[in-house]
Every structure is written in C-alpha cells, then in structure tokens.
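User: I'll paste a sequence; please echo it back and then give the predicted structure.

Assistant: Echoing your sequence first, then the prediction.
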Amino acid sequence: MQFSSPLIPGVFLRRYKRFFADVRLDDGRVVIAHCANSGSMKTCFVEGGRVWLTHDDLPQRKLKYTWQIAAVGRTRIFLHPTTSNTLAKEAIERGTLVELTAYSQIQTEPRINPHTRFDLLLTRADGGKCFVEVKSATLAVGPGRIAFPDAVSERATKHLHELVNQAKLGNRAVLLFSANRTDALSVEPAAEIDPVYAEALRWASRHGVEILAYRAAISTKRVELSERIAVLLEPTTTATPGPSKERQNRRR
C-alpha cells in the first residue's frame, strides 16, 4: 500500500479520547491528528517520539491529519488497522502470501449473514472458497513477540466462531495476523488482556481454522506484508470458549 502523498513528520505529544493525538510538526505547528486505532495502543508510542501523518484537505473532514506511523526506538509501527485487509489483498495479488495464491477471485468484505462480514473471500476456478479475516497486531509483549488484541475484543472472538462455522461447512477458513511492527518475529494471543479470545483462538486452531502471521515492512512511502513469522499458541484446553461473566454482565 503506497501512501498517496509524502508523509508529514512530527513529534508525538499526547493521545486523548482514543481518536485524537496532538502532534508538533517539524515546522513548529501543533496539530490534532485523527487516530484510526480505537484500541489501547499499548507499546505503540512514547511521548516525544517520532510520528508521521497524512494530510487530507477534503471539506467534509473535521480533522485534516491522520496518524499513520509511530517510532519507538528503531521500531516503526503502522497504526491504521482498518487498512490491514488492503495489505493482505495486495500481498495475495503479489504472491507474497504463498499459502493463498491458488485463487482466481478476491472479494472484499463478503457478508456471510446479516450480522457478520469477513475481510476477504477468495474463490478458486473450481468454486472452492476461502474466507479470510485479518487482524492488525501491534502490542509488544517481549523481544520480537507481538500479541493480539491490545484490549478486550468480543468482535474478534465472534469472528473466530464464524470462521469455525465456515470450516465445518467445508470451506477453507484463515485468520491472518498482520504484524504491523518492524520488530515482529512472532504473534500470539494476548491472554492476560483477553483470556476469552486466547482460548477461542486455540479452540479455533483445533477446529479447522488456519492461523497465519506476516510481518509488515514499513517506510514513509509504503507499507506491505513481507515475510511470514511464527504464531505461538499457548497450551490448549478442551472446553469450547464461551462468554466470561464480565462480558455477560456488560451485555445486560
């Protein structure tokens, strides 16, 4: 994915209300940038760290700047999770995701029921189908170790159940982690943050869901998935995952 215009460098000052970040540009101006990542973004920025923004002057936009990349030490982190499906689609078309090259058609955001969409549907010439859900992983939990999610995500757990359903129907079902950090060597479930998701991920891997992870190459000109990395799953359990008491209380 190539950025449509040169990124604008600056220094990170603060993030607030999840979707706003104050950035001091290199020309001295302080601007408010839109933060497209609604998660906690733990380990993704430091006060005074370098960041890069895009600028869009469309009249309907209240915030003209969007936060795209942050640097923590020598590591660059791509912070726009909603474009990870674009990274995956481009990588499939380039042949980088060798596990997913046997398909002649790619459909984005296919709806499988009134309440659920996946990121991609791949179709072979003989009609065989592969549903792909893409998750952006940015949480650093150790040297080279990246985890997902960085906040409790009932939606991500729901997608795992839907992928298992597709596998039971005879379709191929793939969960792809887009590891959007240049220091990523492996991806794992963030069990301490969302134990229900961690259990669901292990359960899904035993019930026909293929789990892949690719690291992103990140520059100020483009971002692309470049290399497969390991997926680390913790010891499995035999129970089918269900909602925790905390989640049940939150739904009431």
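The helical segments are 84-94, 154-168, 195-206, 245-251. Residues 235-252 have pLDDT under 50 and may be disordered.
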